[in-house]
Amino acid sequence: MYCILDIETTGGQFNEEGITEIAIYKYDGHEVIDQFISLVNPEKPIQPFVVKLTGINNAMLRSAPKFYEIAKRIIEITEGCILVAHNTSFDYRIMRTEFNRLGYDFVKPTLCTVELSQKLIPGQPSYSLGKLVRALGIPMADRHRASGDAMATVKLFKMLLDKDKEKEIIISLIKAEIKSGLTPKLLDIVESLPSKTGIYYIHNEKGNLIYIGKSKNIKKRINQHFTGKTNKCKKIQVEVFAVTYEETGSELIALLKESEEIKINKPIYNRAQRKSIFQYALYDSVDANGYLSLQIQKADGRKKEITAYTTLQEGKNALFRITEKYNLCQKINGLFETQNGCFQHKIKECQGACLGIEAPETYNERVEEFINEMLFENNNMIIIDRGRKIEERSAVLIENGIYKGYCFYDLNYQINNIEILKNILIPMQNNRDTRTIIQSYLRKNRVLKVLNF
User: Fold this and answer.
1) pLDDT tens digit string along 24-58?
2) Strand partners, 397
3) Helix H segments across 192-250?
4) Which SS3 state, helix, strand or coil, does residue 31 take?
5) What is the pTM of this model?
6) How far is the C-alpha of 402 from the C-alpha of 202, rounded, in Å?
7) Residue 85 three-state SS
8) Backbone phi, then psi, for 250, in 5-degree steps?
């Protein structure tokens, strides 16, 4: 659990500042579950430049509670939480100073979104909160007021969790829970999970990842792990300490994240998925008569494939569908043939390439059309699909035929500026698996829309 906070102060000499406003949002990694926002009477005057910056003046604070009157509520809401702030060293120092004046030692684990942003979103011209969230397309209200700045930090932190592919932030939270002596039961873990689409991460008692998976129903899938009788399920049941998750809304993004994060984190019980799950591939070659032919073969990393499949039969079924869709010759492609050409020619869907009636140049144009479509050759496209909630959408970016990554955005924020899209993008690797996952998903599923640019 995280407590994301922001504090406004009177200004003045180091360690003599007083708090004028505080905002704390308790965040479970997915949504805000509690909050505390209050003006505070600092019992000392506010510096004029601070009044101008925040709009908070001395008159506004005369009837506000003093810090000792809200101290208990702050302790309650932050209990068992990691403190998160933009420039945590400032907010945490101010908070500890105020509690020290009351004779209380306020000690919490902390995370700083400035430091996390520098690591996970490198190359930004500025890491000040206002400029950073503006560059990332994060909406912000009430700048330099505690509630506005804290809520912007919540949204920034949510993006940083998405970008943290090695799960260092989540693992630090698990380790903090381990120190607190929390030992949840399997039933408790299952009950805490959502019945939604996303990625789940199974951790052992050291906080390390031992399994990563994806599901349209995270709760149901974890329950299957915890009740399964296979050797892998039994090992997971013994070793599991916690399960964390990320909702994606989009099954496509769940598939892409699962594939990449397994390869990055190498969980011990994902051994089979560390390598490609697509063992067969579709290749093209030119036959003796100059016609482009398509064949399903065992995947060979030395050759350029068009797309890939998990099984030989899946590949053969797909090749049948391809020949039908593009009026290609089944005989040339090694499928069903007759004495008078191929089956497609018999039902008048092949234009006679198998008998030399259709010229290779004309036939090959259709084959190349299919190949270019499958490889996204020179394509610039954004695949828009559902998001994690009703008012949100997901976007997958392919630029010059290369998969770049994904992001989420609010419906009231139109993705019509490619540079803003790139700023909020969670970058991912472009490899044969990601390309094939996208190809396969678009073949089998409907998305909301595909934008070409």
Assistant:
1) 999 988 889 999 999 999 888 888 888 888 888 88
2) 382, 405
3) 218-227, 231-239
4) coil
5) 0.73
6) 31
7) strand
8) -85, 125
